[in-house]
Design brief:
The complex is a heterodimer of chains A (131) and B (175). By secondary structure, chain A is mainly α. Chain A has helices at 3-8, 16-28, 38-47, 49-53, 62-124. Chain B is mainly α. Classes of the chains: A mainly alpha (131), B mainly alpha (175).
């Protein structure tokens, strides 16, 4: 890229002084030399088994961690609540079933008793049930 | 381009791009050790991602983007402004380089590098990509995923800020 292109690109050159400053800056910002042995260290790391499997994760912010924690807690509370509600529902169902069974047994006893009395009365009258 | 990254090919890519990657990392982080760490990480990511990269231009674009992201991540993790570390690396980075370029005064180079470290992160990244990598605002916008107008604004404000600081602290160099 020529100096003129550099100046024209971002529309940064309102006057000559600024243009000169840009040129000085561009010269000052030449690429620097790498530390000695840099490439060898990179190649060593790439050759290590860890380099094949490490997944680079961007660091999460504190807010994100808090949100994740709060989300997990809410989910756990919801699951516990659902399990507890289900248990309560089952317990009520069983209690109602037991109560219904008991009522049925009482009703059967009453019916048997009534039938026995009726049979007795009929026998006394000289009749047999079913005739 | 690279179906399976072989050692020879990887070495070639490291040797071709190491100055670009390290210089970017150094100017964004302002700290020599962190810059090396960031640069190594960028190359290791390249090693793993090589199968997805289609050309030499794609590799260069990808390396620039990953380096800038990793460097800004490192800055945020460190959670300190980089000015304090600027002095440390200026001499290390420019000692032999400046001696070669007689036209450029070593003191000017060192001072401009120091002033660069005082810029806010977004402006510094834009200025480094513009003047170190000679990228156009359009190219920078694409690399950073920002609107071109934002990049131009960062460049303009960064340059003005640098020049204003330079005018105060190095009057003999700013004509």
């Amino acid at each position: 890229m020529s100096d003129q292109e550099r100046m024209d690109g971002p529309e940064l050159v309102p006057d000559l002084k600024l243009a000169e400053f840009e040129l000085q800056l561009a010269r000052a910002m030449a690429r620097v030399a790498v530390p000695e042995g840099f490439a060898a260290r990179v190649l060593d790391r790439a050759a290590s088994p860890a380099a094949q499997t490490v997944v680079v994760m961007r660091p999460r912010s504190g807010l994100w961690r808090m949100q994740a924690w709060a989300g997990g807690a809410i989910a756990a509370v919801l699951v516990l609540g659902m399990v507890a509600a289900e248990q309560l529902h089952l317990r009520r169902q069983r209690a109602e079933q037991a109560k219904a069974d008991q009522q049925f047994a009482v009703a059967m006893q009453v019916t048997d008793h009534a039938l026995a009395q009726t049979r007795e009365q009929l026998q006394r009258a000289g009749l047999k049930l079913g005739e | 381009m690279l179906m399976a990254m072989e050692a020879v090919e990887f070495r070639r890519l490291v040797e071709t791009h190491q100055r670009m990657v390290f210089s970017l990392a150094l100017r964004v982080t302002g700290e020599y050790g962190t810059a090396e760490e960031v640069a190594q990480d960028a190359f290791l990511e390249l090693y793993r991602a090589a199968e997805r990269l289609e050309s030499e231009d794609h590799v260069r674009f990808w390396l620039r983007r990953v380096t800038v992201h990793r460097a800004t991540d490192a800055l945020r993790r460190r959670a300190v402004r980089p000015e304090a570390a600027a002095e440390e690396w200026i001499e290390e980075a420019h000692g032999p380089e400046v001696a070669d370029g007689a036209a450029m005064n070593a003191a000017v180079v060192a001072r401009l590098e120091e002033l660069l470290q005082g810029l806010p992160e977004a402006m510094r990244v834009a200025v480094v990509l513009r003047y170190q990598e000679e990228m156009s605002p359009d190219e920078i916008a694409k690399l950073l995923g920002q609107p071109v107008a934002t990049v131009k604004s960062h460049l303009q404000r960064g340059l003005q800020l640098l020049r204003r600081k330079a005018a105060v602290t190095m009057k003999e160099y700013v004509r």
